[in-house]
Amino acid sequence: MTMTYSGTTALITGASSGLGAEFASRLAARGSNLVLVARRADRLEELAGKLRAEHGVAVTVLPMDLGRAGVGKELVEEMAKRGITVDTLINNAGFGTRAALVEEDPEVIASEIALNVAALVDITRAFMPGMLSSGKGALVNVASTAAFQPIPGMAVYGATKAFVLSFTEAVAHEAKSSGLRVLALCPGATRTEFFDVLGSESAAVGRMQTSAQVVETALKALDRPGTPASVVSGWANRIAAGLAQRLPRALVVGIAARAVQE
């Protein structure tokens, strides 16, 4: 059954650009009110103004650094103060680094783990009770095709996304008797600011998709009568992810290492 977003509210992290901004636009077009969370207030305000004008939805802007302990509780309390009930949560905030582990900055990788893993779990746990009670929304955690194999040269990033995939599939099983639809979205290389932060597009494996293509994959999965616990965006990425799960592990790691280094 196609999801109904009209009259509901979606909270989107990492909403100032890329997949987050695309989710905001697509959900607003379906009638969802929005809470947009990211660090860049100017980008959020610009997007919020555009979506209010185009779709007539309520858009709340929350400029926040999510890589802090207790951020889930902080967000829930802020929603309570504003009288906002969150029906749908899109955990999109995250970033990657690329180097051999011994060359990585310890503070940067600690921030990477804090945002990609700790904040995602904390925010999910904080909003789950309300979303389960509502039973009419969705939880989407953005993982990656990096989740399907270890990636030498991006060891921390790949491991964080493997965590997100495993975590979300487990939560999906826990929530299967509720009306809440839970999905781990696994895009491959996507034309967003991710590679600007990474510092190079050389780690992009395969043909890049657009944010619109990736978000369309997620929305189609959520509209299915039996929403899958996870979905890979793009047929070539689905084939590659399937092979990574079937080939010998040592071979898969070697292929991943060469792909990232090329």
UniProtKB/TrEMBL annotation:
PROSITE patterns: ADH_SHORT. Keywords: Oxidoreductase. InterPro entries: Sc_DH/Rdtase_CS, SDR_fam. Coiled coil: none annotated. Pfam families: adh_short (PF00106). Signal peptide: none annotated. PANTHER family: DEHYDROGENASE/REDUCTASE SDR FAMILY MEMBER 7B, SHORT-CHAIN DEHYDROGENASE-RELATED. Belongs to the short-chain dehydrogenases/reductases (SDR) family. This is SDR family oxidoreductase. It comes from Paenarthrobacter aromaticivorans.
